Amino acid sequence: MLSVKEISKNFQELIVLENINFEVGDKEIVAIIGPSGCGKSTLLNIISGLEKADMGVISGAERTIACVFQDDRLLPWRNVWENISLVREEEDRVRIQELIEAVGLKGFETYYPKQLSGGMKKRCGIARAFYYQGELLMMDEPFQGLDYSLRREMMQMLLKIWKSNKQSVLLITHEIEEALTLASKILVLSGRPGSVVKEYVLPGEEGRDPMDLGLHDIRKEILSLIME
């Protein structure tokens, strides 16, 4: 379990995060949603150790962490297979091929990033993160810039792999529909300085229909909180 307690972060005079508290349970997908500039990516950087908090305590981050970033961060001189395999010292060829097929890249194993579409690059980045086998998977806007149909396809792909791995996932997103579909629970951050203003434990299983009438009030309330 990841536990975040009383986390605050300033950049000189700018207060970015203030008194952040939440937990990510084992095999749980927690989505963080909030307005632009509220410190979502900064929070992920603190949890991963790329930034240092000014106050607060994080426990559980000593577990192995895999990351999927907004940009794909593939090495241009390595092909799809090589970009996935580089995160582990010993190459598990069976597992790599399973993941390549799971993300829909079968037949593109020897293709280089410049030969791939934006969506295919994101698929490769997701396969690499799952191949790393981190106990916690952190995803920062992994489907940003994709059109609606491709984003839906990628979400279903992610859920299929997650259900076979059951890692804990911390997902940053701007999309309410994305959070309602994928998450076990949703944290809504306020505008800067970011703080948790509401936590929703979602009904049903991950992969739910975000337009379900049972989610109408939650969707409406989240939108209202973000607009504030």
CATH superfamily membership of the largest domain, which one?
A: P-loop containing nucleotide triphosphate hydrolases
**Low-pLDDT sequence parts:** none
Structural class: alpha/beta
Helix-strand string: EEEHEEHHHEHEHEEH
CATH class of the largest domain: Alpha Beta
Which percent bin holds the helix content?
A: 25-40%
**If classified by CATH, what would the architecture of the largest domain be?**
3-Layer(aba) Sandwich
Q: How many β-strand runs? A: 9
Nutshell version of this structure?
This protein is α/β, with parallel strands linked by helices.
Explained architecture:
The protein has 228 residues and is of the alpha/beta class. It has 2 domains: 2-63 and 135-227, P-loop containing nucleotide triphosphate hydrolases (Rossmann fold), CATH 3.40.50; 74-133. The chain has 7 helices and 9 strands, in the order E-E-E-H-E-E-H-H-H-E-H-E-H-E-E-H. The protein has helices at 40-48, 80-85, 93-102, 118-132, 148-165, 176-182, 216-227, and strands at 2-11, 14-24, 29-33, 55-59, 65-68, 136-140, 168-173, 185-189, 196-201. The strands form 2 sheets. It has a 6-stranded mixed beta sheet, with helices on both faces. Strands 2-1-4 form a 3-stranded antiparallel beta sheet, with helices on one face. Strand 1 (2-11) and strand 2 form a beta hairpin. The longest helix is centred in the C-terminal third of the chain and has 18 residues, at 148-165. The mean pLDDT is 88.
